[in-house]
Every structure is written in C-alpha cells, then in structure tokens.
Amino acid sequence: MIVLGRTPTKLAKLGTAFSLPLGKTFDSKSGVLSLGEEVLLDANEPHMILICGKRGFGKSYTMGVIAEGLLSMPGEARTTFAMVIIDAMGVFWTIQQPSSEPLENFKDWNLTPRGFPITVYYPEGLAEKYRPYAQFFHKGFQLYPSELELPDWLYLLDIGEGQAQATVLSQVIKRVKAMRGRYYSLEDMSEVLEQVGAPDNIYSALDRKLEKARNWCIFSDQGQRIEDIFQPGSCLVFDLSGAGELPWNVRTLLTALLCKKMYSKRAFVRTNEEISRIFGEPVNVTFPLIWLFIDEAHLFAPTEKATPATEPLLEWVRQGRRPGLSLIAATQQPGALDRRILSQCDTLIIQRLTAGQDSAAIGSRISEIYGAKSITEYMKVLPKEPGYAIVLNDLTEDIVPVRIRPRQSWDGGGSAKIEDYVHVTLDSEA
Ligand SMILES: Nc1ncnc2c1ncn2[C@@H]1O[C@H](COP(=O)(O)OP(=O)(O)O)[C@@H](O)[C@H]1O
Ligand SMILES: [Mg+2]
Known about the structure:
Oligomer: single chain
Low-confidence stretches: none
Largest sheet: 14 strands, mixed
Helix content: 25-40%
Mean pLDDT: 90
Radius of gyration: 23 Å
Number of helices: 13
Number of domains: 2
Bound molecules: adenosine-5'-diphosphate, magnesium ion
Distance between the termini: 47 Å
CATH topology of the largest domain: Rossmann fold
CATH class of the largest domain: Alpha Beta
CATH superfamily of the largest domain: P-loop containing nucleotide triphosphate hydrolases
Number of strands: 14
Shape: globular
C-alpha cells in the first residue's frame, strides 16, 4: 500500500487515516496488464494536484474519484473542510447520483455504486430554467454588482483600459456607489449612465453592454451571497455553465471572485486559530479548510494572457498551504497553463499526453523533480485506454503507475454517442 504525499514519519504516525483511495498500481511491462497494491492519496495536508492528459483519458473522471474520496472521509475529519467544485462545463452535479455501471465493475475494488450529498448552485437569475430539475440543482447564487471593481467590469464587458467607455464607466461606478452604497443593481447603473452626460455613441455602446450583462442572470439581489455558504462539511458545486449560456469571461470572473473570497476568509481565520493555539484553547472550525476543484484550468489561468482568475489562483497555490487551501486542477493542455501554477503543484497525475508543447511543459516540470529519463520509460507503458496514469509526488519523490479506481457515482462527463440513443444488435445476436 502506498500513501502518495505522505512521508514515512507521517505514515508511522497516521497510518492510512485522512487519506483517500485513488486506485491500484499497474504493471504492463511484460505485455500483460496486472494490478498491484493499493494507492491512496494523502488528504491530511493541503495539496496542489494537477491532472493532465489528452481529452477523453479520464481527467474529469479522476477529479470525480478524488471528490468521492473526500466525501467518504469519516465524520469528524469531514467536518474540518469544505469542497468547492467550479463546474464550468456542468458535469459534476451527477456526483449525487449512483453510478449505473454493472456491479461486476466494482467487485475487484470492494466498492458499491452510490451517490453523495452535495449542493449544486446555479445563477439565481436562471432559477426558472433550473426549476424543473430542482431535485439535482438546489440553490441560486448571486452577485452584487458592487463586488466588481472597474478592471473586472472592463474585462466582463470587453472594454479596453484606454477606451472612452472605460472613463465613462468609471464615473458611473463612482456615482452609483455614492448614491446607493453597497446595494446597487445593474438597473441603477444604467440609470446613472443616462445622467452622466456621455456622448451618444459611448452612451449607447455602454447601455447595450449593461443590457447584455443583465441577460447573464448572475447579478441579482436575491439568493445567497457566495461568502455566506461555505459550511464545514459541505460540498458545493457551482454550475457556472449557466445551462451552457454564460460566456467564458463571466465564468472566469466568477471563479476569480470565489477564490479571492475563500482565500481572504480562510487566511484570516487561520490567524485566529493560531491565537487559540498559543493560548492553549481548543481550535474550532469557523471557516473550513477548502479543497477547490477546477477542471479545464488552462482556460482560467492561461500562459499567453492573465485573466482576473490568474492572480487569485496563483495566490492560492503559492500561499494556500498555511491557511489550508488545496487545489485539484485538470487540463488537457498543460503547455497552455500558467507556468507559475504548474511549478507549484506537488502532485502530478499524468494520463496520455499529446506530443509537443504539452509533453514539453510537463517534461520540464518533471525534470525539476526527477531525472527526466525515468518518466519517459513510464509514459511508454501507459495503456491506450482511459483510467491509467503516472502519478508523481514532489514530497515523497514517488513515481507510481496507477490504475484509477472506478467512480461510485454517475459520470456526467462522458461524450454523447449514437449508442446512447439507439440499441445495437450485433450480427452474432441477430
Ligand atoms: N478510472 C476510470 N475507470 C473507468 N472508466 C474511466 C476511467 N477514467 C475515465 N474513464 C472513461 O473515460 C471517459 C472519459 O473520461 P473523462 O474524465 O471525461 O476524460 P477527460 O476529462 O480527460 O476528457 C469517461 O466518461 C469514462 O467512461
Ligand atoms: Mg474533462
């Protein structure tokens, strides 16, 4: 049995407590695939985990496996942390539903299909759209326009810093703040826009853009505010796809705001916990440790150009260990992910990669940790089907080939195929 990310000293102290099952080692060198010892992942300490591989080789699935492992942690440990899944593609809500895979797929793993308790949030303004599915989509979240600073608006509304629209918008924000304080709406902003006396063309361009922002349905004065919903023990899935309607820059900005809020809350609470410890008082979890899941991470923090999420994510991976923030990110293009994030990851779960830029990016990160030679040997033996990975850990300097275990819950990430709709009769059965 291997507990990835756990030093021998810690292993002697904790055994397998506070770890989660990832899979089993595999060996394919002889040409025949065989499975070996159990592989667990340390969840006692914060980790920055990156899963990378070609499309369709199991990144989102593996995120689901890790989420299930955390959700299965025993009661007391479970209440120390919350899980936050940024679901930009709308595929993780299915964790609440048991897998429909045949039971025999689970028997070698000592597992049974099951769903897990999670809370799925959607943009409050889209409540009508989600209502028929209320069994799976539970609550609306909303954003006050005042949570956004001028640079956020410029990014959202696609306005360049030097443009005249930016100057007018800055006036609008100042004035609406002075008039309404914290609680102003998009409608208030439009009203103030009429009053600031902007030239016609700028007025109508901005007015159109604010109208567009209304249609995203994320700004509202109802529903729960994001900072009020992080309860210890909870697993929050933020469906930022907005039923497939939210543009990417909106998804990125929402992610940025969520990360900033969680970071600042947790960093402050950590200081309080430290003080309790100094005075020998018991430490209560007032704001939980966080395991943050971000799929398609290169879209949030790309190499070529910073987005509003870049800085918050960098802060998360650089400074998150002290306050107890973990990241599980996945990307099909590690070469397109901000290098600074890649270099902070302590655990790499590598599935089949495309040659070229992506292999090079991962290769250079790996050679920082290990001799680059050993990993290419491993990559050669990776089976050509999904569910296999080479897992590297920085701390324990492990390189372990792992067959990722099956998911107990429904996999919402599979591609739509004709066979989903049409029954096939094989010639041999006809
Ligand atoms: N560990 C696994 N065990 C069984 N099937 C898997 C496993 N990992 C992936 N798969 C299969 O591969 C499909 C694609 O995986 P997915 O995670 O959606 O790929 P990616 O996110 O890398 O594009 C899944 O829908 C599932 O059918
Ligand atoms: Mg995926």
